[in-house]
Amino acid sequence: MLPRIYLAWTLVLLGDPASGLAEARRAVELEPLSPLVIAGLGYTQFISRRYEEAIAACEKSLEIDPGMLLSIYVMAMCRAQQSRLSEAIALAERAVSMSERAPFYLGLLGNFYARAGARDVARGLIAELEGLAAEKYEPPHCMTYIYAGMDDLDRAFEWQAKAFEYGASPFNYFSPVINDLHPRSAPLRQQLDVVPR
Prior knowledge:
Blueprint: H1 2-13, H2 17-30, H3 35-47, H4 51-64, H5 69-81, H6 85-98, H7 103-115, H8 119-135, H9 141-149, H10 153-165, H11 170-173, H12 188-191
Helix pairs in contact: 1-2, 1-3, 2-3, 3-4, 3-5, 4-5, 5-6, 6-7, 7-8, 7-9, 9-10
């Protein structure tokens, strides 16, 4: 059912959230006990800006598998978008711990701390990511998330361009978490026309 979930996400990003949500719900109907598929529905709802529905799906996923990391970070992003930043930070801290400080989750956490006004903590996470980059590959979009949270859009765009060069997933480019980096109402098919090649 994962191909159906990826199709659902793509449909939402192409500007057809109704079809995307229908695909994700159908995937859950076909695999009602899969925590990953249910979390995939939650992510579909998140990128459709249906935050409470996304949280409900993620909570259901966590009832089946309390370690479902996708559900935890989707819930964190929903809470951040609802300006419930202390809850978002707590959930993101949990994701960081569960992932053994994986760069993606550090980037999200930095975004939330920056938005909450804890810029020193966000800068500390940038330093941690820079240290990791000296040892191994660091996904550039992680820095995009933090700089976007700090409203440093010039640096956020710089890192977003690097992410594009490295072939980062479009799901990273168009996340509601970094909404200020793209026109809020334009679907993916319109935005791709202005992405530098």
